[in-house]
Amino acid sequence: MRKWRRPARTVRLRFTVLYGAMFLLSAVGLLAINNLVGLGETKVSQVAPPGASPVEPVTLAAAMDRIAWLQARLSDVHADQSRRLLIGSALALGVMAVVSVVLGRIVAGRVLRPLRMITASTRRISADNLHERLALRGPADEVKDLADTVDELLERLEGSFAAQRRFVANASHELRTPLATMRASLDVALAKPEPVPVQTVALAGRLRTELDQVDRLLEGFLTLARAQRGALADRTRLSLRELASAALHARAADISAHRLVVDSAGCVDDGAWTRGNSTLLTRMIDNVIDNAITHNREEGWIRLTTTDDTDDTKARLVVETGGRVFDQEQVDRLVEPFQRLGADRTHSGSGSGLGLSIVAAIVAAHGGTLDLRARPEGGLRVAISLPLVAVPAEVMA
Predict the structure, then answer these.
(1) Residue 1: pLDDT above 50?
(2) Do residues 222 and 169 touch, judged by C-beta distance below 8 A?
(3) Cα–Cα dist 200/202, whole Å
(4) What is the C-alpha to C-alpha distance for residues 8 and 108, in angstroms, rounded to an integer?
(5) 89: DSSP letter
(6) How does strand 301-308 pair with strand 261-266?
């Protein structure tokens, strides 16, 4: 004879057992209440029928009268029992309906708890933390199979994202060599002793401009790939106020050319310090300031504020600009590569469309948050929150 095999603990089996037990308990409770209320013992009164004497001899007529009286009493008892049975059934049905709903909610909550955990964990996992896994524990049932399948999907996605970032970084690095060769060839061609035609000089200037644009684009790719990999070596304590002031000072000529008014009164407080990679954080603030200058109107304004939150956990940098009114949905897409405000991908300006996507990657790599808002009055508000660290003692002295 074949050895008896224990059935696998599947979700279907658990549902069968739980619902079967609940139905059985409901039936038992219904019968118990019904018996207590409707099936109580009903005693027939033994009072003699009207007009009968205790000592009267039994005659046929008296016997017939007594039988008729007993039948009437029996009918009354049956009617009373039916009424009690109906009341008991209704009461039992109401009580067990409430009990069944409560028990069903409790049981459903316990059964669906693993699914809620899977849903919450899946919502939390994004492109920035694909290394996390559900790692659901429990019996090998359908829910466990679902969690393991999601983990396998996340593993494949992590590999794909890593391969994509490696390709972008490697391609950007390898393309720098031919670009440098092309730039050197232009310089050599223009440096010949014989006179160079004017058309050649103009063409060389246009080519050099395009090469510079491609070089900036490749540099943006490298920075973006580095930030997305989380390669944050050489962490040090940095002041957001000092970084913002340095970025403004380096772009003073561009600010003057656009006749912009800079309000940096909110950067007086030097309590907003964080820890991170100096190169990446400098690039982050540079990109925010560049974006504020580029996407602004002539004779507009820029407002900078650096603060530390009241709960002493976040260092904040807020950059606001004036300008035209933007759509919030368009602003939300600015963290994606090659997204610009009021321009398409064929934009031929100096921007690469990577500025705020690099900012978002650097902020995420440092454990911070980026909030982009279209101001109702016009312009853009960029708020960066990074983990706060204590101000160095030498600065406080």
Answers:
(1) no
(2) yes
(3) 5
(4) 21
(5) H
(6) parallel
Q: CA–CA separation, 349 vs 166, rounded Å? A: 28
Binned at pLDDT 50, 70 and 90, residue 34 comes out as: low
| Geometric angle at alpha carbon 277, from 275 and 281, rounded to 5° | 90
The domain spans of the chain are: 11-40+65-124, 142-228, 235-396
8 A C-beta contact, residue 363 and residue 386? yes
Q: How distant, in Å, are the alpha carbons of 129, 153, 229 from that of 133? A: 9, 10, 18
pLDDT in tens, 168-206: 667 767 777 788 888 888 888 777 777 878 887 788 888
**Packing angle between helix 198-229 and helix 278-294, nearest 10 degrees?**
130
For the domain spanning 142-228, the CATH number is: 1.10.287.130
> What architecture does CATH give domain 235-396?
2-Layer Sandwich (3.30)
Q: How confident is the model at residue 384 (pLDDT cuts 50, 70, 90)?
A: very high
| Tokens of residue 354, six digits | 């990577």
CA distance 93 to 99: 10
Per the listing, tokens 């690095």 go with 173
Nearest to 175 by CA among 221, 227, 218: 218
Amino acid at 179: L
pTM of the model: 0.56
β-pair partners for 357? none
Distance, CA of 388 to CA of 230 (rounded, Å): 19
How far is the first Cα of the chain from the last one, in angstroms, to the nearest whole number?
88
**CB neighbours of residue 384 within 10 Å:** 27
- Residue 321's contacts (CB-CB under 8 Å, 6 or more residues apart) are 292, 295, 296, 300, 301, 302, 303, 379, 380, 381
Dist CA 249 CA 254 (whole Å): 10
Q: What is the mean pLDDT of the chain?
A: 77
Long-range CB contacts (within 8 A, 24+) of 346-349: 349/294
297-348 pLDDT, tens digit per residue, is: 888 899 998 887 656 688 899 999 988 888 888 888 887 766 666 554 434 4
User: CA geometry: angle at 278 spanning 371 and 393, to 5°?
Assistant: 100
Burial class of 3 by CB neighbour count within 10 A (0 to 12, 13 to 18, 19+): exposed
